[in-house]
Specification:
The protein is of the alpha+beta class and 187 residues long. Helix content is 37%, strand content 20%. Strands 3, 4, 5, 6 and 7 form a five-stranded mixed β-sheet that branches. A two-stranded antiparallel sheet has the order 1-2. Strand 3 and strand 4 form a beta hairpin. Helix 2 packs antiparallel against helix 5.
């Protein structure tokens, strides 16, 4: 019995040491959020009171800003906004022009396809509505495109349009996506 007790403790000790060593080895091989050049997809906590990091992503360093923004817009569209169209139109003088649009069936008022959890969702009747929902949409889009904590070379700001028309102050009651949004004036 005494022999088995020592064997158990020695086994646990060896396993701990090996696991700790592998953890250090793996931690040094992979990028750790906050110390790398990861881009961040932002979101809100469940109470919609605090902006949080939802996802870290990395793109090939050979891609230019427009290409990275295109990939980021596709990712955020799928991950956060039920695959609603988000198109980077241009990047001029460090300001990205991003158009938010509706699915074709919403514009044409045809029968909605069945998308689990997303049927009937649109910018106008979903993400731009309600004070909490509008704030979450504004914070998620603005912060994900502007990347306030990114340490590398990035765009200066973003300007949003909806259905091809620039979003103006007062267009919507609950969103704050008008004008040029920079790190200094994030919603």
């Amino acid at each position: 019995m005494l022999k088995n007790k020592y064997t158990l403790w020695i086994s646990l000790f060896v396993t701990t040491v090996v696991g700790f060593g592998l953890g250090i080895l793996v931690g040094n091989q992979y990028q750790i959020p906050g110390t790398s050049k990861n881009l961040t997809v932002y979101g809100m906590d469940e109470q919609v009171t605090k902006v949080q990091t939802d996802l870290y992503v990395s793109f090939d360093d050979k891609l230019n800003h427009t290409q990275k923004l295109d990939k980021l817009s596709t990712l955020i569209s799928r991950y956060k906004f039920c695959d609603l169209p988000i198109e980077v139109k241009s990047v001029d003088n460090g300001i990205a022009m991003v158009n938010l649009d509706e699915h074709p069936w919403v514009k044409q008022r045809t029968t909605l396809p069945s998308i689990p959890g997303c049927s009937g969702r649109s910018w106008r009747y979903g993400y731009f509505q309600g004070s909490a929902g509008g704030y979450a949409t504004s914070a998620t889009l603005a912060r994900t495109f502007v990347q306030p904590n990114y340490k590398g070379d990035w765009i200066k700001g973003v300007r949003f349009s909806y259905a091809g028309k620039p979003i103006q102050d007062g267009d919507w009651d609950h969103i704050n996506l008008h004008g040029v949004i920079t790190r200094e004036n994030l919603p």
